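Hey, can you fold this one?
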Amino acid sequence: MNENLIPLPKMSEYLLEDFMLPMNLDVDDVSKGANIPVSEMQAILNNEIEITPDLSEKLAAFFGVSKMLFYKIQCEINSRELAMPEAIFA
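Sure. Predicted structure:
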């Protein structure tokens, strides 16, 4: 494995570090505000499911950002995983 690789980001890290923690929000807050079931929100934060266009729109409406922001980030993460799978566990 190349030790110079930067670890691939995870959607959970992005949501937590850039949105939830700075806004002092927990899973229940986001779930209720974005109209996403708690179990589904928890699965996103556990990296068990990916962001779909529908989820992206719901999260975006709640956080006040572009409706496809989260989906585009998910697609970029997926693209990087395909291009450099050895970086996944770096």
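The longest helix spans residues 69-83. Let me know if you want another pass with a different chain boundary.
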